[in-house]
């Protein structure tokens, strides 16, 4: 599914983001999101609401990487991750899939498409469909 460029909402200047640190933002409908500038220069946006603690704190989470196992002959790959600052559950920042539920029920998070154009971070107002349909 391709989202029209004019459907993305301006959030901030890319230069306002700090690598590997989250920033909270509000979408026009009042939805809180967490925006992350990764070390490779890419930007990710996910819901701000931590589904395990119930608090809006994911922008304060820890960014890292996780080696996803390959299937069949496919080699494994590193994926960017986010760990909750509350109970330390971890998610894949590309898909929202929970990687470590901390022994609890696996709950994914919503992921928003992001583009950076002319130094401006722009986020899709609606998240991508959740991998498990539970975000």
Automatic annotation (TrEMBL):
PROSITE patterns reported in the protein's UniProt record: NIRD
Q: Output the InterPro entries linked to this UniProt entry.
A: NirD, Rieske-like_NirD, Rieske_2Fe-2S_sf
* Keyword match Oxidoreductase: yes
Residues forming the Rieske-like [2Fe-2S] domain are 8-123
GO molecular function per UniProt:
2 iron, 2 sulfur cluster binding; dioxygenase activity; nitrite reductase [NAD(P)H] activity
Q: Which GO terms describe its biological process?
A: nitrate assimilation
UniProt keywords, alphabetically: Dioxygenase, Nitrate assimilation, Oxidoreductase
Q: Name one Pfam family in it.
A: Rieske_2
Q: What is this protein called?
A: Ferredoxin subunit of nitrite reductase and ring-hydroxylating dioxygenase
